[in-house]
Amino acid sequence: MLVSPGHWTYYGAAHRFDVHGDAEEELRCDRTMSGLTEDELRAQALLGDRCAFIALIEILVDQDRTDDLRAMADGGDDRARRTLMELLANQGREAELRAEVAAGRGHAESLLTYLCGRGRLDDALDELIRWTDDHPEDAWWAHAQRLDMLLQGGRADEVEREAAAGDRVAIRLLRALGETLGRPVVAERPSPGP
Ligand SMILES: [Zn+2]
User: Near ion ligand 1, which residues have CB within 5 Å?
Assistant: First the structure.
């Protein structure tokens, strides 16, 4: 199997291990899957066989068959959608990634992760504003995402300002980060009296 670097949710043998939780079982499964044709894998995957789905995804990713992944995704398979976005992100194909998001075929999250992963926080924030304009129903998600990106990107001061203004998401994120770090991110403010 050709191993592509980067983060994958479904691609890769590690996920088959997750299914079986046992190296021997995984090996047996791997052999079974290798003996199946693509059509057979597709049929099994449709019946809900996760291992067959993973084997099929590996074939499509290794052969760079983005059109086939997109067709599966358009047919309602969110795993194929996620894999397509990860393929584009992992290979640095930003224009195609943007095209998927702009066409409403992929969620902005993949693109934001891609941009933040390259230290392009401002580009990610711009993209998020664009996304929110097109998807007002996702405004709450976008708000939490923006604060999280600011925190991860070293701009905690901006999150602190919103927490001080009473933003619950900002307060929650700062508290969670404080627990992870084992110290408060900001000085505790006195709680309001009774
Ligand atoms: Zn299996």
Answer: 29, 51
